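Q: My labmate handed me this sequence with no annotations at all. I'd like to see what the chain might look like in three dimensions before we decide whether it's worth expressing. Could you predict it?
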Amino acid sequence: MPQTVKATQSIEIRELLKLAYKTFTSQKGEFLFQEGMPAKELYIIKSGKIQISKITTDGRELALRICGENDLCGELTLFTDSPTYLLSALVLEEGEIAVVSSDTLENELFRNSDLAFEYMKWMSDHFRRTQTKFRDLVLNGKKGALYSTLIRMTNSYGAKKEDGSILIDLPLTNQELAKFCATTRESTNRILNDLKKDHIISIKKGKITVHNLQYLKTEIGCEHCPAIYCNIE
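A: Here is what I predict for the chain of 233 residues:
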């Protein structure tokens, strides 16, 4: 059996779920919220997958992370006057979503010091993950951005196979993968084809298997950050 190498982390989701005033089933292709909309709610992902993205100044979509079970989204708008969502949340896989009013959560964080502490720790980890992703995008160019995205995906969705290779158990089109690198589908195609020719990766039924993870790490000067920070979630 493949060995799962995914690392997950969350704050006390059970405490947050107590604050939810409703749940609903999300549908693939719909948005929980879009950039610029008034931000009055925070979403807890009980099941399914949500892509968090940002539209760049030149109109391209930059996918920042994929939220899964027990993740939060919409969390960047707390304690802000007249807040609007800074990012967009697209449903990739339908699931159950719990909704917490921003006002309710803010009041609870003032009242419950343990929850506030856990929430601050979660936000600190979240900002560090975002910071390292932007570092890779800025310092390593298109190729390095794709390499680092593949590394992150092995940490989030990787299943280690008997031969030591790692299957990224998440089907993605080249266009979807390009969004995580702020590049074009054509550029992503070229880089993936080069990696396939060199037997660094293989692709079957939309899923990528990484055969030489160390090559990707060496090429971008990987700093060997813990998987809790080096992931796509």
